[in-house]
Write a structure and sequence with these properties.
2 copies of one chain form a homodimer.
Chain A lengths: L3 E5 L4 H12 L12 E12 L18 E2 L7 H10 L5 E17 L11 E7 L6 E4 L4 E3 L4 E4 L6 E5 L6 E8 L23 E2 L3 E2 L4 H6 L10 H11 L3 E2 L4 H13 L2 H16 L13
Parallel strand pairs in A: 12-13
Antiparallel strand pairs in A: 1-8, 2-3, 2-4, 4-9, 4-10, 5-8, 5-10, 6-7, 6-9, 7-11
């Protein structure tokens, strides 16, 4: 199923502003998934497998149950929303997340962890930000604060907040599996409202000369900028009508045109890691160690 | 005076490793100077004007004296080094700094704060990293762990660590002014040793077609990648023999060729902010707010 809105939480504006301010003052833990992102990408662990707020690891491959970390008590409105709106028996992880001057590269989640039907990921924005958009293989969309979004993270998907303004959200992970229905994430069946329509982002038609212009990057690409170029290419589908997966093929084309075997290898390994297959704890980097 | 080595601290490898591990586990405070950087750039405030470890602001324009923050006690070897090697009366700020997959754009420091002769900035790497280099208007150089480097931050300067490995350092700020001599930063005059020679980085001659290849970026530059392109250009002088300041002129040329007035304006404002003039607390961003 494609990404879709499952419900809408009526946040209390004043209380949510206080919780966001509290999140923004919390220590930032180690981040296991930075390689997927550029810019500010930080996660505050509110609910996870260990109950340890410093543990940002997603234990989907083991389907460990979740529990609150001590930080959840410090954000009372979010605490209330999580425990009254959602089914705690299925909730495995909750991250309070901020992204600024940020993009996440086109990628598929869960591919290291097993059958994608076991996992169900939900995003809820805590504040509106006009510069923040998400995408999957079908569309580019703008999440509004309070919307409970199923993000089909098993598809190739991406996002950006190309502004210097914060965009706090919650990322909720649920255990799914046989017989699971989206309504099962909620504490009460009436919270499920699949009638809500998303705000789609209109893109401009892809310019006919786009591939040729991008190919010019083959004369500029180097070990020091291949990461920048990979992320730059990964954002083009967010504003122009090109397939989300095209960026990986462009990157491989650009490196092939450059004739640099090391760059070709990085591009091919990157495509494999981000969209095809990877292992639990596999440690890809665009740059040397 | 150009950047130069002033002395060499014989760190205790085992004790420094413990202090680095402790720094790496500390909460990361708000970062006032992120706009100068891309990638991981974090500062742990060990000594500053307020004594508050969350305060990362450099109060050079007011020449406030410095004092330890509570975090200094948690890194005993660094505490000992700072207090036995340096003159506490001149020390205004000490930041424990990590940079990873990082570059800092060609820029001049202190231009918002008054006469550059009042300020004296010192960098000491806590660990070696072959991928980490610094530059000023004269040279590209490789700092080695323990070297006490005067960084002539009033010149245009830059740096990168284009690897996924950490590069912890200390950044020390001293009050200088009339009659100040570099040896004055030390607690004892014999610590000053200007005979130490730096490791210079050999660069390749600039390719004759470099300006033409970079100009191809004018067909790719957009609001969503101008920041990436600015940083990409800002790293070229670190590996090719071109003037450090060239990147700002390239960026302006590229945006002019693009014909996009908004991009030209961003490029011109960026050059002004980073190398020509700015106000205390001025808030430049490449991206919209």
């Amino acid at each position: 199923m494609a990404s879709t809105i499952l419900g809408r939480i009526p946040f209390d504006d004043e209380r949510i502003a206080k919780d966001i301010a509290r999140l923004a003052s919390m220590p930032i833990p180690q981040e296991p998934y930075r390689v997927f992102t550029t810019g500010t990408w930080l996660n505050i662990n509110l609910w996870n497998a260990s109950g340890d707020h410093a543990d940002g690891f997603w234990y989907g491959h083991e389907q460990r149950p979740g529990r609150p970390t001590p930080l959840l008590d410090e954000v009372p409105h979010l605490h209330e929303v999580l425990t009254t709106w959602f089914n705690p028996d299925r909730l495995t992880m909750v991250r309070g997340r901020n992204v600024v001057e940020f993009s996440i590269i086109p990628h598929r989640d869960f591919i290291e962890a097993g059958e994608v039907e076991q996992f169900f990921r939900v995003i809820i924005l805590l504040e509106d930000n006009e510069h923040s958009v998400n995408s999957d293989e079908d569309m580019v969309f703008h999440m509004r604060a309070g919307e409970v979004w199923f993000l089909d993270a098993a598809q190739v998907h991406a996002a950006m907040n190309m502004s210097s303004r914060s965009r706090w959200s919650l990322c909720l992970d649920f255990a799914a599996g046989p017989g699971f229905q989206p309504a099962d994430i909620f504490a009460r069946p009436e919270f499920y409202d699949p009638s809500l329509r998303p705000t789609l982002v209109e893109r401009k038609p892809a310019a006919p000369d786009l591939p040729e212009r991008l190919r010019a990057l083959s004369t500029v690409v180097s070990r020091h900028n291949i990461k920048d170029i990979a992320f730059l290419l990964g954002r083009i589908h967010l504003t122009e009508e090109v397939p989300i997966g095209a960026s990986w093929d462009w990157l491989i084309d650009i490196t092939r045109q450059s004739g640099d075997a090391e760059l070709i290898d990085i591009a091919e390994r990157a495509k494999k890691f981000f969209v095809l297959s990877r292992e639990v704890n596999e440690d890809f980097t665009f740059l040397p160690r």
